[in-house]
Write a structure and sequence with these properties.
single chain; Immunoglobulin-like; five-stranded mixed beta sheet; four-stranded antiparallel beta sheet; 21% helix
Length: 159
Amino acid sequence: MPDLFIEKYIMKPWLLLLLSVVFINGCTFGPTYKETNFDDPENAIIYIYRLPDLSFSGPQIYVQERKIGTLTSDGFFIAKIPPGEATVTARENTFWKLKDQRLEFNVEKGKKYFVRYGFDAFITGLPVVYHIKKESYMVLVRQETGIEHLSQRSFIKSD
């Protein structure tokens, strides 16, 4: 019986590919940027997003010290805040032991801001012993860049 299962399901390359794509993308199948694009003349709107990557977990995102949710690969959050000082924090909750990231910037009412979260992973070490090092980052990007990146991301419902 186990041999039949392996032959019937595991040895099908298309099935492995499909399962891999669903697993890697973190299942972020919400509305797109165009479906969530709105204006608020009294508040600033902050889009916090993450491009696709191979990490299976994500940081907890806080805006003005209020938890928004977990930022999964290929998704984004939206936060509306009053004008003034904005604080976006990514608190890591993975075995990678990454440093928390904090970004502070001034926002104006009626404007949109785009914050990109990501990480760089690279291999260090001797030819025989390797170590994967991962460093996270959070940056404020230009509106044109943010809109381009968000056009293919999925909205993540806040916690």
